[in-house]
């Protein structure tokens, strides 16, 4: 296809006064000027776009394939939250395979679209759909985390439930619903410039931006705000309950020691202050992790103070630390993912909506290109964040890259 364009450019010289000359190669019709991508002496290609685009595509594919393989092959990573991360990685992976190659090709030709308009419509549909899927997956993760904090006793982080499956399916159905008007003919307007691939309907630009970004983002941020506020409150309450339980337990031990000095009294009869296991579990039921509360309750129970009980207590403490550590890691990584996503995509949506709503605003094409590239870079950043903030992901990545079993 590019070969045909070069042949026609050689045999159809352009006017010296920059008058557009129409070049037709088979079904392709492209308007080119002397200052455009194709000139009299050959082609003016945007090589920086190629140098940035090809490595970006490879990094996105490699990183997100590693994320998917890590969760699917490593048992310790098969948690409810990580399945949402897989859904997010699939969206980024599809973006690198279906959208970015055509976008890089168009940028390489200086923004000129040389393919069929139906391919352009499919490209715009996939672009809107996958961008929407990314942010809706992040929103679904925040909903899932919020449920885990609000009703921890009904949340099983190690089992993928029907609720989570419905959330993931809903993100993809809604994403296709937002983008579907483009593929169903919204972009086919009279007088359309076949040499430019873009969304032709300004109202749809505003509508898709609201549905894909300006509505889900505040919801997601509010959920994280309530979540962290609740975690701080419950953390303080849990520490207070544990401290109170330890005081009562210590008092019970002292009374038990005194009871041995009085004949006829058993330690149990003399220990009204001793807290049974069920009471400790109840006292810690407000923990952000039900598994953590159960393990700490068993650790602090009177039965854990024998020789074998101390060994079991240390094992329980180790297990509790692992579970608590995973929860803390998830709560540290996800806000970073959300923050980076907002930093990458906010300029894109602000610029495009401003361009539609503010007619007098002079937004240059280079700015549009920069914010678009910044949005696409986000798809390569998420796997790097997981590697930097999550030791388990990092270890599995190394194992997969080194082909270890």
TrEMBL record:
Mode of membrane association: Multi-pass membrane protein
Matching entries from SMART domains are given as: 7TM_GPCR_Srsx
Localisation per UniProt entry: Cell membrane
Residues annotated as transmembrane: 49-72, 84-105, 165-184, 204-228, 333-353
| Gene3D superfamilies associated with the record | Rhodopsin 7-helix transmembrane proteins
G-protein coupled receptors family 1 profile domain spans which residues? 63-386
**InterPro entries linked:** Dopamine_D4_rcpt (IPR002185), Dopamine_rcpt (IPR000929), GPCR_Rhodpsn (IPR000276), GPCR_Rhodpsn_7TM (IPR017452)
Q: Identify the keywords attached in UniProt to this record, alphabetized.
A: Cell membrane, Disulfide bond, G-protein coupled receptor, Membrane, Receptor, Signal, Transducer, Transmembrane, Transmembrane helix
Q: What superkingdom does the record give?
A: Eukaryota
Signal peptide from the UniProt entry: 1-16
**Is Disulfide bond found in the keyword set?**
yes
Tell me which Gene Ontology terms the entry assigns under biological process. Answer: adenylate cyclase-inhibiting dopamine receptor signaling pathway; adrenergic receptor signaling pathway; negative regulation of cytosolic calcium ion concentration; negative regulation of synaptic transmission, glutamatergic; phospholipase C-activating dopamine receptor signaling pathway; regulation of dopamine secretion; regulation of potassium ion transport
Return any one Pfam family short name: 7tm_1
| GO MF entries | dopamine neurotransmitter receptor activity, coupled via Gi/Go; G protein-coupled receptor activity
Q: What is its main location?
A: membrane
Family the UniProt entry places it in: Belongs to the G-protein coupled receptor 1 family.
Its name, as the record gives it, is: D(4) dopamine receptor-like
Provide the species name: Scleropages formosus
Name of the gene = drd4-rs
């Amino acid at each position: 296809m590019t070969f045909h364009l070069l042949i026609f450019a050689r045999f159809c010289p352009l006017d010296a006064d920059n008058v557009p000359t129409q070049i037709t190669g088979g079904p392709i019709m492209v308007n080119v000027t002397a200052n455009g991508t194709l000139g009299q002496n050959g082609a003016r290609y945007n090589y920086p776009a190629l140098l940035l685009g090809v490595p970006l595509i490879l990094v996105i594919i490699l990183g997100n394939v590693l994320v998917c393989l890590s969760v699917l092959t490593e048992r310790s990573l098969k948690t409810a939250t990580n399945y949402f991360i897989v859904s997010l990685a699939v969206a980024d992976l599809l973006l690198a395979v279906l959208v970015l190659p055509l976008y890089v090709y168009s940028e390489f030709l200086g923004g000129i679209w040389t393919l069929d308009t139906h391919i352009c419509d499919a490209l715009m549909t996939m672009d809107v759909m996958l961008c929407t899927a990314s942010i809706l997956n992040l929103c679904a993760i925040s909903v899932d985390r919020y449920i885990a904090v609000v009703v921890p006793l009904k949340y099983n982080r190690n089992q993928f439930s029907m609720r989570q499956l419905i959330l993931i399916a809903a993100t993809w159905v809604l994403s296709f619903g937002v983008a579907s008007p483009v593929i169903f003919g919204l972009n086919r307007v009279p007088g359309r410039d076949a040499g430019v691939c873009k969304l032709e309907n300004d109202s749809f630009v505003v509508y898709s931006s609201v549905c894909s970004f300006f509505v889900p983002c505040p919801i997601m941020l509010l959920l994280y705000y309530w979540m962290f506020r609740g975690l701080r409150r419950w953390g303080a309450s849990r520490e207070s309950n544990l401290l109170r339980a330890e005081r009562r337990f210590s008092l019970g031990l002292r009374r038990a020691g005194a009871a041995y000095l009085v004949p006829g009294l058993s330690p149990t009869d003399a220990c009204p202050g001793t807290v049974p296991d069920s009471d400790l579990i109840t006292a810690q039921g407000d923990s952000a992790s039900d598994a953590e509360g159960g393990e700490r309750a068993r650790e602090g129970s009177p039965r854990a103070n024998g020789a074998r009980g101390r060994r079991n207590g240390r094992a329980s403490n180790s297990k509790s630390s692992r579970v608590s550590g995973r929860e803390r890691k998830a709560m540290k990584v996800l806000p970073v993912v959300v923050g980076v996503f907002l930093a990458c995509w906010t300029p894109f949506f602000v610029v495009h909506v401003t361009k539609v709503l503010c007619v007098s605003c002079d937004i240059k094409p280079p700015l549009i290109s920069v914010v678009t590239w910044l949005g696409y870079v986000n798809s390569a950043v998420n796997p790097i964040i997981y590697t930097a903030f999550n030791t388990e992901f990092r270890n599995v990545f190394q194992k997969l890259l080194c082909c270890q079993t």
